[in-house]
Design goal:
Blueprint: H1 2-16, H2 20-24, H3 29-41, H4 43-55, E1 59-64, E2 69-72, H5 74-80, H6 92-95, H7 100-107, E3 111-118, E4 123-134, E5 137-147, H8 149-168, H9 186-198, E6 205-208, H10 215-224, E7 233-237, H11 243-251, E8 252-253, E9 265-266, H12 268-271, E10 276-280, H13 287-299, E11 301-303, E12 310-312, E13 316-321, H14 325-330, H15 336-342, E14 345-348, H16 359-374, E15 380-381, H17 383-391, H18 397-411, E16 416-417, H19 441-456, H20 460-470, H21 474-483
Parallel strand pairs: 6-13, 6-14, 7-10, 10-13, 15-16
Antiparallel strand pairs: 1-2, 1-5, 3-4, 4-5, 8-9, 11-12
The structure holds adenosine-5'-triphosphate and magnesium ion (MG).
Amino acid sequence: MRGDHLNNIDLVSSLIKEDSISSIFHPDSSRLSKDLILFYKKSKETKLLEALLECIPEGVEISDESGKILYVNESFEKITGIKKDSRISKNIYEVNPKSILARTLRERKIINDRLTTAPDINREVVANGSPIFFDNKMIGAIILIKDISQIIHLAKKLNQTTHYLNEMYNRNSEHYKFTDIIGGSSSIQNVIQLAKKVAPMDSTVLIEGENGTGKELFAHSIHESSLRIDKPFFRVNCAAIPEHLLESEFFGHEKGSFTGASNKKVGIFELANGGTLFLDEIGDMPILLQSKLLRVLQEGEIRRVGGSKTIKVDVRIITATNRNLKEMVSKGRFREDLYYRINVITIRIPSLKERVEDILELTDFFIRKYNKKFRKMILGIEPKAFEKLSEHSWPGNVRELENVIEYAVLTSDTEILGLEHFAAKIPAKNIANNRTGIIPLVEMERLHIHKALKLYGNTLKGKKQAAQALGISLATLYNKLKNNGIG
Ligand SMILES: Nc1ncnc2c1ncn2[C@@H]1O[C@H](COP(=O)(O)OP(=O)(O)OP(=O)(O)O)[C@@H](O)[C@H]1O
Ligand SMILES: [Mg+2]
């Protein structure tokens, strides 16, 4: 009798030592089983154990060997949303034959860390089950359930925040220079000349252009040609800033300035001090932050959230957008005063459609790039395939072209890329002017010249042959090449 009593006290104290899951599934299962039998039979100790089981945060459910449920604690009810009354005295094989308790009984072995969802309340739980043996005979089973929905919720939040931060600060971005911008067309060359001219000045630059036209490339190149070359270049994707991170990410905060601000934080303006801050997708900046940004641009100083002193900052601002900011201003979605402030110098990058003549050079460039990456030896592109590239409308501009070439290089097992290598990425319906089938004459001429040069080669001999095939003199060919910015 006294020994039994001591056994129960042992069990209670081992349970109290927390880490309750592992202590209940004590390897010495015969001791555990003995205690559990006492738990059902002896009233005083039973009460003590029951009180303990009612206190622990894990849900507990115990059945006998036939599956009849003997005990369910308070936490089980809370975690699973299943009422005690709907379980006690019922058979687990009937109420939930797929449950961990039923499986533990069926398989007569410990089931550890099974992640499941409590069906009634859609909450993530971890369940552990263990059979109970007495004199080598299974007399029942016990399961413990832990609510981990909070942990999962926090993990998801953390993931999301990390994603935002990575998106916001393009930390691993490469250092592009003007020489990395490919394209001999006069339209892109004019833009490069303008950007080179403004690079050494400290003025604010607004870069406009459709998706994938190379706005980031230009922003980098401007910084790399500026006097700030040795200072930091920071890119912030304004579209990726969640409202609640916004102000403190930009301006920093003092310790304790709001719930969760357990440490002082230096904002992006301070980090970029002396260097360049590239505000990408400025058109997506929330209006509240627009006014704060305007103040910084006007006053050249910031104040941390919760701070009282102002900090002088010297940051060159480059902004980029694929939206029509002017139109946004007229609709009241972008502050007019900020628009004028950032729009001191505007660089508009032409879309790829506007400079079809660059496609050949870009194609060659990307073939070389992906040859290196994938260890391939692609030599070039068939005239028919090139024609297809020239006719495509390129809504995704240079990025789309790069993806198309990457895919073609990767999938090709011939030395020359043919039509078949582009069929998957460029569906026929995206061909420009396909409704009328009419291509502007200038573009036709450009295409034809390309085709001839591709066929005969870009050497003097090739050009002579090309001119002959096109029925023009060599001088006229040179003129046309110059005018089209191909030569
Ligand atoms: N003229 C160019 N020469 C070489 N590569 C280019 C050129 N223009 C763009 N690219 C390449 O195309 C891709 C897209 O460029 P980038 O990210 O600068 O475009 P973006 O205008 O900022 O696009 P988005 O509007 O989608 O942000 C990059 O891989 C870049 O290296
Ligand atoms: Mg960009």
